[in-house]
């Protein structure tokens, strides 16, 4: 890899994820201050959509930390960060609906979500072991160890790639639910989409970094193998 290649690599590796996180935080901060016209808190929005979709068994709970919102398929729980849980903001409405989107995916047996869940045990193992083999391969110049490390790392990259359709689909479901139940109105649709798109960009950035890093390691391996 030439000098220009390394420059592009480090730009993607460092700047793109930082930019995505800054974009998410600034967008979220802006629209967390905009009160939703429905007056519903994030917890109420989540509960409304869940009940409308026959998911009364899914709980809505408060989660500590900023943007710690998530859906847990094991406990059937939508967890919302404190501000989103308690405040009636456009950002909280969008985030709550997105997490419920995951609950709906779970209930409807969405294929990409199921596939991602199956990858989790493999990723937990491969993420810890991949760099051990890669470092052995690089420093001891053992191409076989390098190849094992790349294969393990590829499992994590696959997980990142599968995450993209899961997240985009959850956002699409969120917007459909917000509109069909008249939870957002007028400009709120555009504002909610900005929040969801900013969140999606963090996943796109993480995937881009993972793919480029995998490609770089494959190039290192091929040069080792030729030598």
TrEMBL record:
Taxonomic superkingdom: Bacteria
InterPro entries with a match to the protein in the record: Zn_peptidase_2
Keyword Transmembrane helix in record: yes
Keyword Transmembrane helix attached: yes
Keywords, alphabetical: Membrane, Transmembrane, Transmembrane helix
Spans traversing the lipid bilayer: 6-24, 195-221
Protein name, per record: Zn-dependent protease
Organism: Planococcus citreus
Classification lineage: Bacteria, Bacillati, Bacillota, Bacilli, Bacillales
């Amino acid at each position: 890899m030439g000098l220009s290649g390394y420059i592009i690599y480090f730009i993607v590796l460092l700047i793109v994820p930082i930019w995505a996180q800054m974009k998410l935080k600034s967008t979220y901060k802006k629209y967390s201050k905009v009160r939703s016209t429905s007056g519903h808190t994030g917890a109420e929005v989540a509960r409304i959509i869940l009940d409308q979709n026959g998911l009364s068994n899914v709980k809505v709970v408060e989660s500590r930390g900023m943007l710690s919102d998530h859906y847990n398929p094991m406990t059937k729980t939508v967890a919302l960060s404190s501000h989103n849980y308690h405040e009636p903001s456009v950002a909280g409405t969008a985030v709550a609906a997105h997490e419920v989107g995951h609950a709906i995916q779970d209930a409807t047996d969405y294929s990409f979500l199921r596939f991602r869940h199956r990858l989790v045990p493999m990723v937990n193992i491969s993420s810890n072991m991949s760099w051990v083999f890669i470092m052995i391969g690089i420093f001891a110049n053992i191409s076989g160890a390098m190849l094992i490390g790349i294969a393990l790392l590829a499992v994590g990259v696959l997980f990142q790639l599968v995450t993209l359709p899961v997240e985009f689909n959850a956002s699409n479901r969120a917007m459909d639910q917000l509109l069909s139940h008249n939870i957002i109105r007028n400009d709120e649709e555009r504002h909610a989409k900005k929040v969801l798109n900013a969140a999606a960009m963090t996943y796109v950035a993480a995937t881009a970094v993972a793919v480029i890093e995998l490609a770089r390691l494959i190039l290192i391996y091929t040069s080792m193998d030729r030598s």
